[in-house]
Backbone:
């Protein structure tokens, strides 16, 4: 079965620090990859997505992610975090050729201190 | 533009009671999903409906049933609630075709079973 692993469950950073959240998936075929964000008390919103082409994907709010096929990874990065980035971040995958079950990782809770 | 609307937002049930969570989307999406979110476990897929008239089990279907009433509506039923079903439930919709579009989420239903 497909699965998604997020290595860090909790991350605490100071403002202006750089962020990298790990995501690995287990699926042998071609996949589409997503990062979603959930701000406190809100629903999930899409940060960025990868379908094909340039493996470095830029999303909203200064976030980017790099797809490394050989490592089955799709890590999320931001050069300088802000207090407003405090949220929970979810990596998700769906097989691109097959059908559309979107499978999520366990999430990473990020706290940014001023 | 309402997007994905879930009702109710909060619910407390006694063990053994039944209830139906309602979900409606106004984006003309083909596919709809029910997820549950539990701390440290991310979002787990309960059931999904690829298109009107079809439903399939996800990762954690036991104790739940679903109905795709029409293209807009996808309900989740708990026939006999158990404390293990205490969770936050999210409905989502998408027009995944070869994974080309992201899923949109509702605001969630916080369910407590006592």
Residues:
């Amino acid at each position: 079965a497909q699965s998604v692993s997020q290595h860090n469950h909790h991350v605490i950073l100071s403002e202006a620090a750089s962020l990298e959240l790990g995501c690995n998936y287990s699926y042998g075929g071609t996949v589409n990859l997503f990062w979603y964000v959930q701000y406190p008390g809100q629903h999930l919103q899409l940060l960025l997505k990868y379908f094909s082409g340039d493996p470095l994907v830029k999303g909203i709010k200064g976030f980017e992610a790099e797809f490394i096929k050989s490592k089955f990874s799709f890590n999320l990065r931001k050069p300088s975090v802000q207090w407003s980035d405090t949220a929970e971040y979810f990596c998700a995958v769906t097989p691109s050729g097959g059908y559309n079950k979107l499978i999520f990782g366990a999430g990473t809770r990020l706290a940014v201190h001023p | 533009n309402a997007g994905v609307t879930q009702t109710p937002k909060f619910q407390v049930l006694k063990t053994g009671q039944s209830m139906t969570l309602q979900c409606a989307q106004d984006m003309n999406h083909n596919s709809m999903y029910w997820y549950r979110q539990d701390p440290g476990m991310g979002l787990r897929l309960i059931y999904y409906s690829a298109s009107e008239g079809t439903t399939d089990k996800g990762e954690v279907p036991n104790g739940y049933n679903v109905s795709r009433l029409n293209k807009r509506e996808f309900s989740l039923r708990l026939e006999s609630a158990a404390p293990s079903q205490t969770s936050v439930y999210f409905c989502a919709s998408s027009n995944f075709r070869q994974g080309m579009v992201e899923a949109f989420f509702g605001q969630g239903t916080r369910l407590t079973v006592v």
Q: What stands out?
A: The mean pLDDT of chain A is 91. Chain A is about 0% helix and 50% strand. The CA atoms of residues 20 and 71 of chain A lie 16 Å apart.
